[in-house]
Amino acid sequence: MTRKYSVARLAALLATCFLASAAQAGGDDDAPFRSDGKTRNAADPIYFGHKLADFTMNAEPESGLRLLPPTATELFAGQRFDLRIETQIPAQAAPQLVRLTINGRNISESFKRRIAKQGSGSESGTPQSELLYGATARNLSFDQAGHYEVEAVLTVDGVERRIANRYDVAAAPNPKAPGAARKVVFFLGDGTGLPLRTAARIVSKGALEGRVQDTLAMEKMPVQGISRTTAFDSIITDSAPGMASPLSGMKQSNNALQVSVDNTPENALDNPRIETVFEYMKRVHGWKIGVVTDAFLVDATPAAVQAHNRSRRNYLNIAQQMIGYYDDASALKRTGYASLAELSQPLDVLMGGGAAYWMNEKNPDLKTFYQYAKGGRKDVDLLADIAPAKGYSVVRNLDELRIAPTDHKLLGVFTGEFRTTSSGLGADNLPGTLDRLVARGAATIRGKGASDPELGMNVAPPQGRGCGATVADCFRQVPMKTEMVDKAIAVLDTLAARERRRDGGWMLLVEQSQSDKFGHILEYDRAIYEVIELDRTVAATAKRLGGDRRALLVVTADHAQPQTIIGVALTGALVGQAGACFTTSDGNYPITLGSPADKDRPCALQDAIGTFNDATFPTYEDRNGDGYPDEVDPAIKLIIEDGGRPTYSTSFLTNYQPLKPNASRHTDDGKTVEQPAVPNPERQPEGLLMTGNMPTRNVVGGANKTGGSVDIAPHAGDDVLVSAQGAGADRFAGYYENTAISVRLSQALGGNTKRAAKAGALVGW
Amino acid sequence: MAHRGLASGLSAALLLALQAPAVSATDLVGRVVDAVDAKVFAGALVRMRGGDPAKLAAQTDGQGFFRVPGLAAGSYLLDVHLPDGRAFVARLVLLPQRQTQFLELDYSRAVPPDDDEDY
Lengths: 765, 119
What we know:
Chain A has 765 residues and is α+β, with helices and mostly antiparallel strands. In chain A, helix 5 (239-248) packs across helix 19 (740-748), helix 15 (481-498) runs parallel beside helix 17 and helix 16 packs antiparallel against helix 17 (524-545).
């Protein structure tokens, strides 16, 4: 044993020397990342470990030949996907498909016939140049579980190029199986990393002698897992692939919704698509599906349930996909997108904000009720005309939501955070939890309620009184998340019971969006209230469905943010110590720190944080028993800070209204330029200066590349928790890619977990 | 056994090194696009920093493609100037032993979104 060990060490040493000398000889920084002949797409490599490393892409290097879905996409049997073959580098002559095989069986003719049947153009993802190969066979699936090797061979300028992908396909969901889940609520805390969960517990549950008095409903769940959130093309995901990948099993690029990249970037709707678990259960088993969010409805997270688009920003056609409306005279055409209409399953329940993407610009309600100063659709009015014609009840506020029938599909679009004195969320997104509580008289900010002018709620809405006489009236009519989910479940229950297939099954995605949006603008206290609302909704849902042994609840996040808990502060002292921490000579640079009297103590606020053994316990109270602290800034409050941020200043007190952290300026031609290096002069200018570490601009010709102007706290690349309870919850234990969530859902829905002995075939031609 | 394994392993490594393609320069093929706005950019100018400016610049064709031949392996920064006046910077790690390397220069990935809602 000893001798073998020594020889092995010698071999390793020699091998290391061999590799090291090779690397040094060529001055090759990339040697450690050299792989096995696979192309690396170096579009945006990541700098780490003093090496510039790009990400590996499974493509043939000289032609860029690749197969999609990406290799190792986690599929289940029956799940639809588009199979695409494409090259990325233009050839001298049109490349030709020589062979396409699955587990050695030649299916080239089936593929070619399918492409011919679909026709060229957007249905097949045909590139404009014939010097690129590109063909997508739509809506195929593997008919049974097993291991599949797919290989494509093309002739490119007289040379055969080949690429192979592999897929391990799980068993199809089978809701009739014993113990299979038939009611699934998937909670997504956007940007809710572990620190935000911890903060929500400390703030809402308290502690005695170091021991928590109660735990979050999320913590009570018996199964806890961890998922990795990395996107297809970046260690930092945005919210599109952060939600899309877990619901379909396919790693996706930032900005992408249930599609892969392709070589026709001029068309965001023709990319190769993949079916989500939600869509599959509706298409195959007649289940009802829904989304509830406090973001605008067409935002990335809710859209990931059943929209398919390379660009999350294509809000108008995403809204149409959500209710299944295709029309050549609208943003989502019927011609060229028959395969999309066949794949995308309309939602039965949807609630959120963002009326401007649903209503025609000429509809007066857009201004007088929803408070948009401008905006709106130019083609159709989905809210007033299309959705009612498709059988949806349309509701605009809490009163209408309460009386809406449960035996109709339901579309709820509520008013947003439209205060013109706030630079936080904007009219698209619902007001934050804290602000809705203040409007309802259930919470205060630094002792002030809705009647105080500082909060901007005791005035008439800016564009008309359609939603109420005052801003507070309008905010009171925006439902809390528990109210939305309660109604959503009632409707889904009723509709599912009436479904002729009588499965009685449904799936609901519940997003807590503002935990991310408030995190971005460093409104930490508001972000914590969002997570408390998420947890209260989880608790209420668990209670409501607790008697149903076939209900499954899952709670996770699409990604984290770089926040962390650093201590506590005595809020009274914060007020006293604020002021004169820094001055600016011209509203910009340079910044003068401290006072001549005490150069070692430039800002007394830096001494305000109690940390280590000086971090005692915050003193939040919930005397009205609604589950939320009555005052956001009690005598001792919790302090969170960010590892990534633009420059801002803070007194650690809660802003009366949500405000963006950094300054901006206007150019002569009317454009707004964000200034991530300059604090917002309207936000706690008396506070401690927190210098930023996010890029200020894209430095063309400079010494390095940055990510451009980032005027928010970023997302983090950290892994996130997955909590589960109910039918099939045990599937969510472990440490896995976020794409594994799709397969674990399919197993909780009755998919057989035994390894398949023999693979099947690709079907759907 | 262990000695023989070591010897054969080293022999295989040396053999692989000798058999590696003798590629001293790589052609960079790139495409300038905006995946979010669904655009390809014709007439964009791509400049690679350092070296001979005349040799390390290219303009995109009607489909947004460009080619810069004969590059040495290593790390590069690329300044990309779009026809509408916008510009951005991209990174490139050019691999050795490769005749051609493809690089998609995506404006939407190189700069943050115009709207905070796109995060």
